[in-house]
Specification:
Distance between the termini: 33 Å
Mean pLDDT: 90
Number of strands: 8
Shape: globular
Strand order of the largest sheet: 1-2-3-4-5-6-7-8
Helix content: 40-55%
Structural class: alpha/beta
Length: 310
């Protein structure tokens, strides 16, 4: 069995977090569940980008009310809570996590890309987190053998960065973002087939894929134990132009047309043990999904309740 995040952290850090109490460590290897267990344990994380540029403490104060146990810090342009942590310092951030009984689970760093994450790995690992989401970059629009070759080359370039993730006990979760290398079902499958380390995984965003439940469920099964983050996020009417608020909110589970029941069944089948995030992108970026933190939290909780009721 690969070394866990807990075993990779030195004794001083372990004692620090044991003293902290509420910020329990989630072993990185736990994000790769044994598929034979057939039992899913949802681990809800709350993306700070859903609140735009609102103060981090206000977001943390409502995080548990949404059903989340973990926080996912986003930087500009979608949010600025990652920068807020830099401004306040790690000690103050730890105090806030303890105050509101929330743990750092992961950060999302598309701005750094997959080859510039080592300092962020130190930051996340040092605060008890276990994952970083980023994108694969280009090229885009490839098919067949050209796509396979490009993904093989991407895996080769990733090797030293995966080694760094192993050292820090972090999972690099690559999202199937649109207009990037993994933006098709085939690209996603090829990438998954080449994963050889529990410190490399997939952040699966149904939004960026055809809205076909059978296809999406099959992709979840194909990812299997390599699925690290699942975005409960549908396309609805999209997020790239200004829409009436009710239509924009159709990205959220339970509001748009996508039936999440087959997707959750597939997550059960693989014994998914990674992070689940109820997610959407407001327009323009950097704004909250609703006009204030409490109302945004209520909307997220409504979608979490939808998923739980399924």
């Amino acid at each position: 069995m690969p070394p866990t995040h807990r075993s990779m952290i030195d004794r001083r850090k372990v004692l620090r977090f044991l003293a902290f109490g509420s910020v329990a460590l989630l072993p990185a290897s736990d994000l790769f569940a044994e598929t034979t267990t057939k039992k899913r344990k949802p681990r809800y994380a709350l993306a700070t980008s859903l609140f735009g540029l609102e103060p981090l403490e206000e977001i943390l104060s409502v995080a548990k009310s949404t059903g989340a146990e973990w926080i996912d810090l986003w930087p500009l342009k979608h949010g600025n809570q990652r920068e807020q942590v830099d401004a306040m310092g790690s000690d103050k951030f730890v105090e806030l996590l303890k105050k509101y009984e929330i743990k750092l689970g992961l950060t999302t760093r598309f701005d750094l890309g997959p080859f510039g994450l080592e300092n962020e790995m130190k930051f996340v690992s040092g605060l008890g987190g276990t994952a970083i989401v980023t994108g694969p970059g280009g090229p885009k629009g490839l098919k067949g053998d050209d796509l396979k070759k490009a993904i093989d080359a991407f895996h080769e370039r990733l090797k030293p960065h995966v080694a760094a993730a192993e050292k820090h006990g972090i999972v690099m979760a690559i999202e199937n973002h649109s207009n990037m290398l993994l933006d098709t079902p085939d690209g996603l499958r090829y990438f998954v087939d080449g994963i050889r380390s529990p410190s490399l995984g997939i952040a699966l965003a149904p939004y960026h894929l055809p809205q076909e439940t059978t296809l999406l469920a099959d992709l979840i099964r194909h990812c299997g134990s390599k699925l690290a983050v699942f975005y409960a996020w549908q396309h609805g009417k999209g997020c790239m132009t200004k829409l009436p608020k009710d239509e924009e909110m159709e990205q959220l589970p339970g509001r748009g047309p996508l039936d999440f029941a087959p997707l959750l069944s597939a997550l059960d089948e693989i014994g998914f043990n990674g992070f689940t995030e109820v997610f959407m992108h407001p327009f323009p970026r950097g704004t909250p999904i609703l006009e204030n933190v409490p109302r945004s939290a209520d909307a997220i909780r409504r979608s979490v309740d939808y998923l739980k009721n399924l």
